[in-house]
Amino acid sequence: MHQVEERSVNCFIATISDTRTIENDKSGQLLKQLLEESNHIVAEHVIIADEEQLISKAIDDVMLQPEVEAILFTGGTGISKRDVTIEVVQSKIVKEIPGFGEIFRMLSYTEDIGSAAIMSRATAGVLESGQLIFSMPGSSGAVKLAMNKLILREISHMIHELQKHITP
After folding, report:
1. In CA terms, which of 24, 117, 130, 133 is 20 to 30 Å from 76?
2. Alpha-carbon distance 147 to 167, whole Å?
């Protein structure tokens, strides 16, 4: 295990949904709670409709905010016709982090939902702007699993790796 000093990471949260609001967005609220409990910063928490253009614009807008270091999406990762988050996210990624989706699906299979894990298209990567992006399913169980078993354990380390060769 690599020893990297824990640090606060400035995060942007978006729930991809046609039906959720900030008030009833359990998964987005859970993301925010878990990040803040781990001393990370939530710059913004928004709801974005399941529309390719809106998701793409949101990513482009956040890429123009250099203070945001990580984008966390929940929702729109399934296999239905309306689930378009992954296609948009993958089109923006310049470095894929395949281990996130692979390990998430393995953990989902063994600890949570069994064989239904094959329908998850969770993914992560690095954007051209140097920001991390994670896209996970919309259920609060999936968010809890991804955050507690993967993201919160490694996000400081990942930001360290992305920023270690950047000169101020």
Report:
1. 130
2. 30
E strands in the chain: 10-16, 41-48, 70-74, 93-96, 123-127, 132-136
What is the number of residues in the chain? Answer: 168
User: What CATH number does residue 93 fall under?
Assistant: 3.40.980.10
List, for residues 33-70, the tens digit of each pLDDT value: 999 999 999 999 999 999 999 999 999 999 999 999 99
- Phi and psi, residue 26, nearest 5°: -60, -40
In a domain, 96, yes or no: yes
Determine contact, residues 90/118, Cβ cutoff 8 Å: no
Task: Give Rg (Cα) of the chain.
Answer: 15
Q: Is residue 25 situated within a structural domain?
A: yes
